[in-house]
Amino acid sequence: MYLVTSEEMRKIDRYTIDSVGIPSLVLMENAGRAIAEEAFRLAETGAARGRPPRWLILVGKGNNGGDGLVCARHMAERGWETLTVYAVPPEQLKGEAAVQRDIADKLGLPAVVFEPGKLEWGRFDGIVDALLGTGTAGEPREPYASLIREANASGLPIVAADIPSGLDADTGETADACIRATVTVALAMLKRGLLLHPGAEAAGRTVVRPIGIPEGAARELGVNTFVLNEETLRRRFGLSAVPPARAANTHKGTYGHVLAVAGSRRMSGAGLLCAKAALRAGCGLVTWAVPEALALPLAGALPEAMIRGIADGGSGEWADADVGDALSAAADKQAVVIGPGLGRWAGDSGWLRRWWQTVASPLVVDADALNMLAAAGAGTSGSGPAAPSAEPFSAWPRREAATVLTPHPGEMARLCGLSVREVQRDRIGLARDFALRHGVVLVLKGARTVVASPSGEVYVNTTGNPGMATGGTGDVLAGVIAALLAQGMDATAAAALGVYMHGAAGDRAAAARTSPASLIAGDVVDWL
Questions:
Q1: Long-range CB contacts for residues 118-122, cutoff 8 Å, separation at least 24
Q2: What angle do CA 235, 237, 242 make, to 5 degrees?
Q3: How far apart are CA 130 and CA 163, in angstroms?
Q4: Which of 54, 63, 229, 303 is the most buried (most CB within 10 A)?
Q5: Angle at Cα 477 formed by Cα 474 and Cα 481, nearest 5°?
Q6: Which residues 6+ apart lie within 8 Å of 344 measured at CB?
Q7: Apex CA 265: angle with CA 472 and CA 256, to 5°?
Q8: How far is the C-alpha of 401 from the C-alpha of 478, rounded, in Å?
Q9: DSSP string spanning 386-455?
Q10: What is the C-alpha to C-alpha distance for residues 170 and 411, in angstroms, rounded to an integer?
Q11: 480: phi > 0 → left, psi -120 to 50 → alpha, else beta; which?
């Protein structure tokens, strides 16, 4: 499923009209019908009233308003009582919206022009929001702002046409005056702002309804952002969220060997979660590397994994661990994950550079290792001062082998030399640009995790829940992705499937508990 910007949708509309030859009025007719059908479904779930439903249709002067007028007509044909509320005098409607206005007039559909405080909202059962479409951004002007606020205050269910008025279709940012929809009917394709937060909350339940625009139009115009769901996994990667049955004549070596360089004296649990998640995600073998003084205390904590103690002079600290000894453990592994629970120490960026430049297998870089990357580019490293960089990660050379970085917004901000707010403002665009320029697969974690590939494709995840906002879940994700890499999966596919699996396991774990708030990272591992 494609995920589009407002500009991409505008081009797709024009392509459909001009190149495919489907008239714009046909698309508007289909759109209005789709919105009405969703209102019909919503009304069926309500209580019986003994009278026809009464709905308000809020209409702006653009094509979104034209969709609303078609919706009102289909509601009237069903026997519903409708009142069209024009935000501005109907004479201001132009083009196809004006055509629909004239049809509604000839059919005698009741209509008024909005006046603040004059509508009797309590007489009605629901609202269709067809005020502002995807082409608007920023704070709605009057009288739209007042109409939006009154609609929200009414407490009535709201069906939004394509996108809630006041929601930025590209970023998901919401204006002070923004419709809070019960359900949003995304027309033809899902707009980015409906999936990203806080827009997702304003959109309510979102459904995508066809209106006659061929899916090939998005492909033809080069749209390369996708909703990460089971359909996308199947169509883009040929993968299933449920692992396929294993052949009978396989063995543990068939499914790859992961080296987890993770955990420290204070944060051994991070390494444990990472290694266990890798095993749960299907790799055949896991070696868990820790400073040698920790190897015996951790022996048996995860009996299915092999513990590799790295010579440390008895200190139990990565600062004293022999990097050459550690690197020798990576020589025969199909994937390496480094970072969860490592901690930080003087010269750690130089230590990580050895891994970066030496490891020939796919590498997943997470947590403290990401901060080492950022620190080196910002001007410090184990081999002496580095040249300051506007983007700290630019100081690191490209690796030949596949590389997956898994930052949360704070870590991403440090890698890029930005604020967290700047990162969150355009997660998709920032992730795509970063992956393209540096030749890495980037997994930007958070609500709606973004997976960006070095070829420019971006996938926005649909699984996961707020209960996963707890320590250790990122360590679990790093282990899952490493396991999929070890099984021979392409880095983008491994990251996309890993992110989807991780969120889906979190959803299953949350459903099994009284409240998602009680979820812990170990629960996610258990539900993989």
A1: 119/56, 119/85, 119/150, 121/56, 121/150, 121/151, 121/153, 121/154, 121/156, 122/154
A2: 90
A3: 9
A4: 63
A5: 145
A6: 368, 371, 372
A7: 60
A8: 17
A9: ----SSGGGGSPPPSS-EEE---HHHHHHHHT--HHHHHHTHHHHHHHHHHHHT-EEEE-STT-EEE-TT
A10: 24
A11: alpha
Q: How far apart are CA 218 and CA 2, in angstroms?
A: 7
Helix axes 95-106, 24-44, angle to 10 degrees: 60
3-state DSSP call for residue 202? Answer: helix
List residues bridging with 167 in a β-sheet: 174
Encoded tokens for 475: 């360590």
Q: What is the C-alpha to C-alpha distance for residues 371 and 373, in angstroms, rounded to an integer?
A: 5
The single-letter code of the amino acid at 429 is G
Total number of residues shown for the chain: 528
CA distances to 67, 272, 474, 484, 517 from 467, in Å: 38, 20, 13, 24, 5
Q: Round to whole Å and give the CA distance between 166 and 144.
A: 9
Output the furthest CA–CA distance in the chain (Å, rounded): 89
Pick the closest to residue 428 from 192, 164, 96 (CA basis). 192
Calculate helix-pair angle for 63-77, 24-44, nearest 10 degrees. 50
**Percentage helix, strand, coil for the chain under 3-state DSSP, each rounded to 5:** 45, 15, 40
Q: How far apart are CA 151 and CA 164, in angstroms?
A: 12
Write out the H or E segment, with its range, that includes residue 514.
Answer: none
Single-letter residue type at 111: A
The pLDDT profile of the chain, 528 residues, written as one tens digit per residue, is 899 999 999 999 999 999 999 999 999 999 999 999 999 999 886 555 788 999 999 999 999 999 999 999 999 999 999 999 999 999 999 999 999 999 999 999 999 999 999 999 999 999 999 999 998 888 999 999 999 999 999 999 999 999 999 999 999 999 999 999 999 999 999 999 999 999 999 999 999 999 999 989 999 999 999 999 999 999 999 999 888 888 899 999 999 999 999 999 999 999 999 999 999 999 999 999 999 999 999 999 999 999 999 999 999 999 999 999 999 999 999 999 999 999 999 999 999 999 999 999 999 999 999 999 999 766 543 333 333 447 899 889 999 999 999 999 999 999 999 999 999 989 999 999 999 999 999 999 999 999 999 999 999 999 999 999 999 999 999 999 999 999 999 999 999 999 999 999 999 999 999 999 999 999 999 999
- What is the strand order of the sheet 54-59 is part of? 111-113, 81-86, 54-59, 126-130, 158-161, 183-187, 205-209
Q: How far is CA 90 from CA 56, 74, 104, 207, 228, in A?
A: 16, 20, 11, 29, 41
Q: What is the pTM of this model?
A: 0.92
